[in-house]
Write a structure and sequence with these properties.
single chain; 116 residues; alpha+beta; three-stranded antiparallel β-sheet
Amino acid sequence: MDRKKELKQQYKETAVDAGIYQIKNNKNNKILIGSTKNFKTLNGIKFMLENGGYTTNKELQKEWKQFGKDAFTFEILEKLKKSDDPYFNEKEALVQLEEKWLDELHPYGERGYHVK
């Protein structure tokens, strides 16, 4: 029982990484850029895509069904650097970081799943 408590405590103390990720369709090179407060949620996105329940981007869901999961890769583009500044706002920082990557990669039209 002590081992179970120890593992629970270890899990609670594990740092949660936030940042920007990319889902890439390797068949047509289209990409989706997203942000998350916890990279562990990417498993949930994969699960939703595999089960046809990803409603955030219908085109991505359609192509996932068409090409299959092996046609896609998930990549972490940048981890958010946390700040000890009491005025640091993680949500705002993630939005700014995502905008930076959208400006850099231009995932619109034939290049991606975003709409301008």
